[in-house]
Amino acid sequence: MADAQVLEQYDQSTIEKIERFTTRDMDDLCDATEAAIQDGGGFGWIDLPSRQIMERYWHGVLLVPHKDIYVAKLDGVICGAAQLIKQPSNNQLQSFNAKIRAIFVAPWARGRGFAKQLVNKMEADARRQEIEVLSFDVIETQKEAMQLFETMGFKKWGQNPLYAKVAEKVYSGHYYIKDIQNP
Asked: Residue 40 has what DSSP assignment?
């Protein structure tokens, strides 16, 4: 028991917004993404893409001005990520809302509250940017994600019965929203 307590003291967790990738960050992010995909929580990927495709994906996300990447780190190693997708500058009608997308935590880092910390950080940053509403959608199989968002004040507003298809089976998707200015 004493060993577990000592190890726990050294667990340093952080949530960061990424502005650029170091080589280590990219390697860690791809490793965590691969682990999440293999575990069935790869935010849209069913089959594991090549490392080159994954790296291009993450670099591409970073290039889009209205997309922000947040990462969770455990002892300096990226173990999860999420994206905050704001409206492009030409969409003034919807500029008050943003979407949380592609949130995941690698299986080896789950149970430490990283998903909640990622959402809290994105919500705080969105509020500072005068965003008023956050939305999120999720496949029906991700029960823990739905439960997390519901406990964080997100309200389910709809369901799409034809949301996703995996191995010829169709799954529904659930849509959530939260007023972050007047929770």
From this structure: T
